[in-house]
Design a protein that fits this description.
The complex is a heterodimer. By secondary structure, chain A is of the alpha/beta class. Chain A folds into three domains: 158 residues, no CATH class; 51 residues, no CATH class; 226 residues, Rossmann fold (3-Layer(aba) Sandwich). Chain A has a six-stranded mixed beta sheet, with helices on both faces. In chain A, α4 packs across α11. In chain B, a hairpin with a 5-residue loop joins β12 and β13. Chain B folds into two domains: 174 residues; 210 residues, 3-Layer(aba) Sandwich (Rossmann fold). Chain B is α/β, with parallel strands linked by helices. The longest helix of chain B is centred in the middle third of the chain and has 55 residues. The chains are: A alpha/beta, B alpha/beta. At the A-B interface, α5, β1, β2, α8 and α9 of A face α6, α8, β1, β2 and β3 of B. β2 of chain A pairs antiparallel with β3 of chain B, so a sheet runs across the interface.
């Protein structure tokens, strides 16, 4: 039976190992996102998948369905647990080579198989119970079902159970007096600690310190422990003989299909786990509708990377809406410094990229297109070269972008002429903007030049807002219209939840 | 076995985090002076006093429970002092005999825990003796239950059982451990077993018939000895923990006793000081919140009195059923002092103590909150009003029906027109939601707006000023006057020609 993939429908290409980080990753802070997502998951080699955006709505929608299934808490938990268990199985097996005592190795081999069986069964059970809708996960569920029903697997499970039970029944006592040790079967002597606890139970209340010294369990056995184990083998020979025979029969027990699943599933799990704290903090995510026209829109979009930082320090995350209608293609974003303009531009790029990975995107609702390419141009702050050669370099980069951009591309332009003289900047800004209009590409154009905001019907003006009650406070809201003006005191009262209507809601009766 | 002298069914936690806005309440009501009087130089008493006063009771039955214990403490100070010495003695011996659990190995922990436990058991015997001698003299439910529990739980049979354990735990006959095979066939669940008592020598009894297998570590094998020691330690881990935890629980019980008695001893210090200065105090009558009762006779500001060592001008308050008390009148006429006195009386009543007044009858408040003008609020600089409203908004978050809110010149960080407008909006809603507010204000128009309700749920008090300009520091029921008195304060400070 062939192994189904979770990443693409049958017949579509899969990401290749060679895929490299796209040029715009740094500007959009996607490099930070992918670093966070793949942290601690090096073994799964996830980067190529994250570096390969899809261009076909069919493939995106197919992957969205897998991701939706994965989001089901039971599925997410089960698949995550499975991946972790497979990692553990491999760690145990690698460890055998380093062990000295025969029955110590045999014991860890048994442990690896137990973990594997338990993981596969738990996964199957969870997938059976889950309302799977995606073709990808249903195909894998069928595969797993027939594997578990196969004769070799059932044989493995039965023998594992039997040998484990025999070993678990072994219970022995060790008497230590000075340097001499005696091992023998136990005779129901009472637990001394429990007796002490019973006597002093009347004083027990609340949590007290745990005085137990942490037992450092090494995967190793010193010669005293080895000699005690030898004694135990001598006193209870039968279960150990059974273990020996079992080990020889089942050396190669891991199925290749389950192995591949554990790896691919990490693409979804890694992302979903990364965004989980944001969801817990009440931030929305959605699966965007994929459109082929340019009637794109989003409600409550935000910068995912910034949100991860803000939520970690309990700060609020400002969300913004956008929409293009008819011939509109370009958002020109103006407004005060530090007002959230760049963040808006980044978020706009991120949301399109994440949509093309088939993953949930940081917004309440979204209708997005799949760009053929994404281009970004951010001012390089650290550039100390001569202004003239810097400008020349900037313009060369811009020309390369404008030459390559098509009506299906997405451009994110951030303060491109901020360090140029005003008149020059205005001239250059007009020129570049008109050229962008001519490509027909969708773009975000962040600028301090408010003149550019009214360049034509393709241009939508967005303005970063300030707090009407306190002009020193940035709201990080980016909207089409300026805010209203309330009387100072009443506006302040409202800001603090002290209007009669707000108090009526806030005060309990 | 529990102490339960502060709460009839739970422990007082001296480490409990202070309630929200505790620092503001302390500053506004002058609580630190009260703590100092209760501490009488003892920092521990001060910390306990602070913690208890800042965690008010809101059930009249609980308040009466503490009032009764307090009366017992005032009547039998020497017995209470003797009880209080037991936890102090535990601390002293721990310090002087180096008793404590400092070891990092289970065998070390076990032996030091056994020593510590032996010492604490001795003090429990002393506690039992005190209970046997004095239980009958105490009348409060709190003390009666406490002594009864001591007498019931710590009888002779119990002490015998404890001594037997302490002897056995010296482990003179080696250790017997049980174990099982864990992952990788590594030994797990090492557990110390208690060999059954028998007349036969232990080895014959245990190993007489059953098959066994053994070895002895050669004298030069130090690694082997260490490895065996590690196994022994794993086996002793649980029992060492059990003994150490038993010691800690008893130690904590004594500390709990110390903390709860400390509060009453602090209050006794305060009572002694008031008696010495001839200042009146009385146990108040706490009533359920919905009665809306509030009458105080001869109320004075305890904080001010303690600082000046004299009582100050007493005031009477008749505010039964009044939801809003608007206090106007002469500047420096005693308005803030009165507000503070009311707040302090509530805090003390709801800690179960006596109050600085001749008599008090009041429904309990669901929390006492203060919104006092801050120095930085007075500059009318942009942003100050913002901060003031932010503070109020934070308070609103904690208000419930029957909360008590003391406002001192609130909303004064902006001009009067704006401040009064907001004040009106807010006060209307607080009243409608059953919050009781004392509002010291100079907003004449604002106060005026509530005139019609003077016969109903609004009480107007005015700081008195005599025709010659002198203040009496008396607050009398009276409607606000439109003239500000600030002018004459100014004149007095700068001279009449100013």
């Amino acid at each position: 039976m062939s192994v189904p993939s979770l990443l693409a429908p049958p017949g579509f290409p899969l990401p290749t190992e060679e895929a490299a980080e796209p040029a715009y990753f740094g500007d959009l802070n996607l490099d930070q996102l992918i670093a966070a997502v793949t942290a601690g998951r090096r073994a799964y080699r996830l980067q190529p998948v994250f570096y390969t955006p899809l261009h076909d709505p069919v493939a995106v929608q197919w992957r969205q369905r897998v991701a939706r299934d994965m989001e089901h808490p039971a599925v997410l938990a089960a698949v995550g647990a499975f991946s972790e268990a497979m990692g553990q199985v491999h760690r145990y097996l690698r460890m055998l080579a380093d062990l000295d005592y025969h029955f110590h190795k045999a014991g860890w081999f048994l442990e690896a198989v137990r973990r594997y069986i338990q993981a596969a069964q738990a996964l199957a059970e969870a997938l059976q119970a889950a309302p799977l809708r995606s073709e990808g996960l249903r195909a894998f569920r069928d595969y797993l079902g027939s594997y578990l029903a196969s004769a070799p697997f059932r044989q493995l499970a039965a023998e594992t159970e039997s040998v484990s039970r025999a070993l678990a029944a072994v219970r022995y006592c060790v008497h230590i007096m000075g340097d001499s040790v005696r091992v023998r079967p136990c005779e129901n002597e009472p637990d001394h600690a429990a007796e002490v606890e019973r006597t002093f139970a009347r004083f027990r209340r609340g949590e007290v310190k745990d005085y137990r010294v942490p037992v450092y369990v090494r995967s190793g056995m010193n010669h005293i422990e080895g000699q005690i184990l030898d004694c135990v083998v001598r006193l209870f020979p039968q279960p150990f003989a059974q273990l020996d025979a079992y080990w020889q029969r089942h050396t190669d027990f891991v199925d290749a299909g389950l192995e591949a699943f554990a790896q691919e599933a990490q693409f979804f799990i890694a992302y979903l786990e990364t965004i989980a704290p944001l969801r817990d903090a009440g931030l929305p995510f959605c699966y965007p509708e994929i459109v082929t026209d340019r009637e794109i829109a989003a409600e409550e979009m935000y910068d995912l990377v910034l949100a991860l930082k803000l939520v970690a320090s309990d700060q609020p995350v400002v969300r913004n809406d956008f929409a293009l209608h008819g011939e509109e293609r370009i958002f020109v974003v103006t407004g005060p410094n530090q007002g959230g303009k760049t963040t808006f531009a980044r978020a706009f790029g991120q949301i399109h990229y994440l949509a093309a990975l088939g993953l949930p995107v940081p917004a309440r609702r979204a209708r997005l297109f799949l760009p053929d390419r994404i281009f970004t141009h951010f001012e390089r702050q650290e550039d100390v070269r001569h202004a003239r050669s810097k400008l020349e370099d900037d313009l060369l980069r811009l020309k390369a972008i404008l030459d390559a951009a098509t009506a299906d591309s997405l451009l994110v332009m951030n303060e491109i002429f901020a360090s140029t003289a005003f008149e020059d900047a205005l001239f250059l800004g007009r020129e570049v903007l008109q050229r962008i209009v001519a490509t027909g590409a969708v773009a975000v154009f962040v600028t301090f030049l408010s003149e550019l905001a009214a360049l034509g019907p393709q241009v939508v003006s967005l303005v970063g807002q300030v707090d009407p009650q306190n002009p020193a406070v940035r709201t990080y809201r980016i909207v089409r219209q300026p805010a209203n003006g309330l009387a100072y005191a009443l506006a302040l009262a409202e800001k603090h939840g002290l209007t009669p209507q707000q108090l009526e809601r806030r005060l309990p009766r | 076995m529990r102490v339960f002298l502060l709460y009839p069914d739970s422990d007082f936690d001296p480490q409990a985090s202070l309630p929200w806005q505790a620092e503001a309440l302390e500053q506004d009501l002058g609580l630190p002076t009260v703590y100092d009087a209760m501490a009488n130089g003892d920092k521990y008493l001060r910390d306990v006093a602070r913690s208890v006063l800042l965690h008010p009771l809101d059930d009249p039955a609980l308040i009466r429970y503490r009032q009764a214990v307090m009366q017992d403490v005032l009547q039998h100070p020497e017995v209470v002092q003797a009880l209080y010495r037991l936890p102090l003695e535990a601390q002293r011996r721990k310090r002087e005999q180096w008793l404590g659990i400092f070891s990092r190995s289970p065998s070390g922990i076990l032996s030091s825990a056994v020593d510590l436990l032996s010492m604490l058991v001795e003090l429990l015997r002393a506690l039992k003796t005190l209970a046997d001698q004095h239980a009958a003299d105490f009348a409060s439910e709190g003390f009666r239950r406490f002594f009864a529990a001591v007498q019931r739980e710590l009888d002779a049979a119990y002490f015998a059982e404890v001594e037997a354990h302490l002897a056995a735990l010296k482990l003179r006959k080696g250790v017997l451990l049980s174990a099982e095979l864990g992952p990788g066939n590594e030994a797990t669940h090492y557990t110390l077993r208690k060999p059954e008592a028998s007349r036969k020598p232990i080895l014959k009894q245990v190993f007489g018939r059953t098959p066994s297998c053994g070895f002895t570590i050669p004298p030069r094998d130090t690694h082997g000895s260490q490895a065996l020691g590690a196994i022994r330690d794993r086996g002793l881990n649980e029992v060492a923990n059990a003994v150490a935890q038993a010691a800690e629980h008893i130690d904590r019980f004594l500390k709990q006793l110390q903390a709860e008695l400390a509060f009453y001893l602090g209050a006794a210090n305060l009572a002694a000081r008031l008696a010495a200065w001839n200042m009146p105090w009385a146990f108040p009558t706490p009533l359920p919140p919905d009665t809306g009762a509030l009458e105080i006779r001869g109320l004075y500001d305890l904080g001010l009195a303690l600082m000046q060592q004299q009582r100050g001008v007493p005031n009477d308050l008749q505010a039964n059923g009044k939801g809003l008390v608007i206090i106007t009148g002469a500047n420096r006429g005693g308005k803030t002092t009165f507000l503070r006195a009311v707040g302090l009386a509530y805090v003390l009543m709801q800690a179960g103590l006596f109050v600085p007044a001749k008599a008090m009858r009041a429904s309990v408040a669901s929390g006492v909150f203060t919104h006092f003008k801050r120095e930085e609020d007075t500059t009318m600089e942009s942003g100050k009003f913002d901060e003031e409203l932010a503070r109020l908004s934070a308070i609103v978050e904690h208000l419930r029906p029957h909360s008590l809110l003391l406002c001192n010149e609130s909303f004064s960080a902006t001009n009067e027109r704006e401040g009064a407008a907001i004040a009106r909006q807010v006060m209307d809603m607080l009243l409608a939601h059953g919050v009781r507010v004392f509002f010291v204000t100079h907003f004449y128009a604002f106060a005026q707006a509530y005139r019609a309700r003077a016969e109903e749920d609004v009480l107007f008090l005015r700081a008195e000023r005599l025709p010659d300009g002198r203040r009496t520091f008396k607050l009398r029921p009276a409607l606000p006057l439109s003239t500000s008195f600030a002018v004459d304060v100014y004149r007095r400070v700068f001279g009449s020609g100013a």
